[in-house]
Every structure is written in C-alpha cells, then in structure tokens.
C-alpha cells in the first residue's frame, strides 16, 4: 500500500507574500457582508456577482492600491434577492470565485 502525502497551504491575512481573497463574513448574511482582499500591486479589480442560475446581477470595476481592503456587498447589489450567489474577483494578480448565501 502506497501512502499519499497531503499538503495544506495556509495564507495568513497578514502575509505580504501573495495576493488573496477571503471567504465573506458573515456567511450566511441578511443585509451586508464583507470580503477581504489583499493585493501586492495597485491594480483595478473587477467584482462580478452572479445568481445561482449564472445570471449577472452586479458588475463593478474599482481601482485599489496595494494592500489589504474590505469589499462590502449589500442587499441592493443583489437586487434585494435571497439565495446563493457567486462573487468573482478578478485583477492582474487575482482570479477567485467565492460562494455567498443571503438569507431572509
């Protein structure tokens, strides 16, 4: 029997080594949630939000300097809808998708 090694990679929010996106908090949420984003270089970030059917409900591009940032997502950006949404965060250094859940 051959053993398989498992490697876990942990990225600290205080790490200056890489750009990253964290899972939103709180999740699930009612009115507003926060996604933490960190990037090494200043660059525009595109934030696209899709409903569970893949329909775009919001699409914004913002310019952020290098460093740690909070991105707030509120009910109006989700067309005041409830359910599962997918948030795609894309920049020169990032291409991440996270799943968020808005409840009544």
Question: Could you walk me through the main structural features you see in this protein, from its secondary elements to its overall organization?
Answer:
The chain is mainly β. It has one domain: Immunoglobulin-like (Sandwich). It has no helices and seven strands. A four-stranded antiparallel sheet has the order 4-3-6-7, with no helix packed on it. It has a three-stranded antiparallel sheet with strand order 1-2-5, with no helix packed on it. β6 and β7 form a beta hairpin. The termini are far apart.
Q: How does the major sheet shape up?
A: 4 strands, antiparallel
Shape: globular
The secondary-structure element order is EEEEEEE
Strand order of the largest sheet: 4-3-6-7
Helicity, as a percent range:
under 10%
The end-to-end distance, rounded to whole angstroms, is 50 Å
CATH architecture level-2 label: Sandwich
**Helix count?**
0
In terms of quaternary structure, what is this?
single chain
């Amino acid at each position: 029997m051959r053993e398989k090694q498992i490697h876990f990679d942990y990225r600290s929010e205080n790490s200056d080594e890489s750009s990253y996106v964290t899972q939103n908090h709180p999740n699930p949420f009612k009115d507003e949630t926060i996604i933490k984003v960190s990037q090494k270089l200043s660059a525009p970030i595109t934030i696209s939000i899709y409903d569970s059917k893949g329909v775009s409900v919001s699409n914004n591009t913002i310019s952020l300097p290098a460093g740690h940032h909070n991105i707030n997502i509120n009910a109006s950006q989700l067309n005041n809808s409830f359910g599962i949404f997918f948030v795609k965060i894309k920049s020169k250094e990032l291409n991440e998708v996270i799943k968020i859940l808005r409840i009544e």
